Amino acid sequence: MEFSKYMQEWLYGKDGYYRHSKIGVSGDFYTSTSVSDIFGYSIANYISKLITKNAAIVEIGANTGNLIASVAYFLNNHNIEAKYITIEPLKELVKIQQNTFNQRIKDKELITTDNFESLKSYDNIIFISNELFDAFPCEIYDSEDMAFIEHGNLIFKKASNKIKQIAQKFNIQRGEIPILDDFFKNLESLQKWYFISFDYGLVERKDEFTLRFYKNHKTRNLFLSPNKRKYKRDFIHDFGQCDITYEVNFEILKDYFLSLNAKEVLFGRQNRILVDMGLDMACNWYIEHFGFESYSKESSKIRTLIDPSFLGERFFGFCYCKE
């Protein structure tokens, strides 16, 4: 089995990790959406300038639905109308997302769907996501070979022509190559959209293995060395019980977006992008809406979002637009 298919089963299969994932401070790992609602409010401030008539805000990879609920809460309090949708193939998460949304937004409905077809009725689609692309299945590539799972072992065999072509195009000698064709075919079928996302990854090629597992806020690398094939053989015992992730290659991601004739509107480290999106305005609104005492308690969480030693410079934010 190609490693990408094994990873797909690990994360999204019948007993996959994301069907029962624990994300947040009390879970296996935390994300910007679980740190502070200010993250979503800042994105919403930026989105408020993009919304037109018959617009839909669509979150992909919503998990519990905190991000789209925060965005909707901010926009609703600014009397800005839009439809709210999550694309969610895992039925276990649909109810959780709707409950999260309904607890915070009383007069709006969260629509859930498992495909892109229903989005074609909207004139303007604004996609949002956080840590989406590092959860796509990938192939592990090394010197014209790629990884397979065989009898519970990880082995390398000759890479497929498709994976070799990607590696050659981006001059990759070693590392993870995401499987993105189907996803971008879905985007290609839509006429007009913005795609806003934040993720952890590489802006310069390292030619190293970065694939790792997260459990109880502890990181465990698959490979004993980032540039050798020797790996931790007991990883298979954690099947579906922890997260698998890797560093996103933003060069590959950019190439996919540009292939759809989308243009890059924003790209940079998370702290700068949040400021560009209006972090200060989101904070001022928070003080006006919730009071300074509440903001004082929130301020340390906001620092986590922008501090270079935490999430501020380890994550990147971007926006692409297709018109």
TrEMBL record:
* Sorted UniProt keywords: Methyltransferase, Transferase
Q: What is its EC number?
A: 2.1.1.-
- Keyword Transferase, does the record have it? yes
Q: Top EC class per UniProt?
A: transferase
| GO MF term set | methyltransferase activity
What the entry lists under InterPro entries is as follows:
NDUFAF7, NDUFAF7_sf, SAM-dependent_MTases_sf
Q: Which Pfam families does the UniProt record give? A: Methyltransf_28
GO biological process terms, semicolon-separated: methylation
Write down the superkingdom of origin: Bacteria
Output this protein's name.
Answer: SAM-dependent methyltransferase
Organism per entry: Helicobacter ibis
